[in-house]
């Protein structure tokens, strides 16, 4: 799990942030994450995966699919919920979680 300092940084962006694990993978749950301006929905729950999976070093999963941004959306079942993610690669896990999140959100602008 990320150090407490890194978690507090991401909690400042999204209050209620909670670290989670499933099948040996590390996630950060981000309830009601605000999406970039102009997106519909404007906010949704998100799950930031800081562990490699499906050939991606990190991934951002959303509780809602955005139809006007992102390419090649896929559905995933993680932590008992359905999540959506798009093809956006090469965001390294070596960065602080807040920077990883910012780099994933950049694809949705």
Write structural notes for this entry.
With 109 residues, the chain is of the alpha+beta class. The chain has one domain (4-106). It is built from 2 helices and 6 strands, in the order H-E-E-E-E-E-E-H. Strands 1-2-3-4 form a 4-stranded antiparallel sheet, covered by helices on one side. Strands 5-6 form a two-stranded antiparallel ribbon. Strand 2 (25-34) and strand 3 form a beta hairpin. The longest helix has 10 residues, at 4-13. The mean pLDDT is 92.
List the helices and strands and how they pair.
Elements (H helix, E strand, L loop, with lengths): L3 H10 L4 E5 L2 E10 L8 E7 L9 E4 L11 E5 L2 E5 L11 H10 L3
Antiparallel strand pairs: 1-2, 2-3, 3-4, 5-6
Low-confidence stretches: none
Mean pLDDT across the residues is 92
Widest sheet: strand ordering = 1-2-3-4
Distance between the termini: 28 Å
- Number of helices, counting only DSSP H or I runs of 4 residues or more: 2
Order of helices and strands: HEEEEEEH
Give the total of domains.
1
Helicity level: 10-25%
Oligomer: single chain
Profile the largest sheet: 4 strands, antiparallel
Percent of sequence in beta strands: 25-35%
Radius of gyration: 13 Å
Number of strands: 6
Query: Pairing-aware structural class of the strands and helices?
Result: alpha+beta
Identify the overall geometry: globular
């Amino acid at each position: 799990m990320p150090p407490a300092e890194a978690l507090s940084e991401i909690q400042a962006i999204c209050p209620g942030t909670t670290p989670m694990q499933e099948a040996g993978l590390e996630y950060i749950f981000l309830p009601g994450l605000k999406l970039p301006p102009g997106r519909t929905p404007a906010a949704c729950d998100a799950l930031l995966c800081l562990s490699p999976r499906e050939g991606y070093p990190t991934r951002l999963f959303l509780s809602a699919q955005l139809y006007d941004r992102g390419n090649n959306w896929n559905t995933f079942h993680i932590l008992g919920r359905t999540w959506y993610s798009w093809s956006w690669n090469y965001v390294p896990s070596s960065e602080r979680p807040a920077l990883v999140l910012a780099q994933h959100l950049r694809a949705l602008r």
